[in-house]
Structure formats: C-alpha cells, structure tokens
Amino acid sequence: MQNITDGFGMGMESFTVGAHKAYGHHGGIDGFSSVLEYFPDDDIAISYCSNGQVCSVNDVVNAALTIVFENSLDN
Question: Is there a contact between 22 and 31 (Cβ–Cβ < 8 Å)?
C-alpha cells in the first residue's frame, strides 16, 4: 500500500508532518471525520474518528502528534 503513483497509493497518500514522512488518508461525510496516519520511520500510527465538529480534527491530531514527536513539528 506504500507504492505511490502520481501522489496516491491503494487508498493512501504520502505527505510530511514537520520532518516526518507519513502515509495515510483523511476523510469525512455528513459531520463525521476520520484521519489515519502512519509514520514508518518512527514506527507510529495514529487514527482519529469524530462525529462532532466542536474541535477541528486537524487540531486534535496535530496536538497529539506534537506530544508524540516531543514538540518537534515544524508546521
């Protein structure tokens, strides 16, 4: 699933978060949101699902990754 062609793989895309390379997928429909990110070099994966829009899904995931990567994200 990590074989990327034209920026996309088997349902995943490749991207960076700070200096960390990741594979994953973000999606949402009708007030539901989901995020799956896998960082192979760091041996870390994060998944988050939400059915409420009180907090931004990206804000929650970025806060968690900031903790995991010990505040080393270069956003």
Answer: no
H-helix or E-strand spanning residue 57: helix 57-68
b/e burial code for range 1-29 (CB count within 10 A of at least 16 → b): eeeeeeeebeebeeeebeebebbbeeeee
| CA neighbor of 21 nearest in space, from 3, 10, 5, 37 | 37
Query: Once rounded to an integer, what is the mean pLDDT over residues 35-46?
Result: 92
Q: Which residue has the tokens 């960082």?
A: 39
Domain boundaries, the chain: 13-68
Q: Has residue 39 got a pLDDT over 50?
A: yes
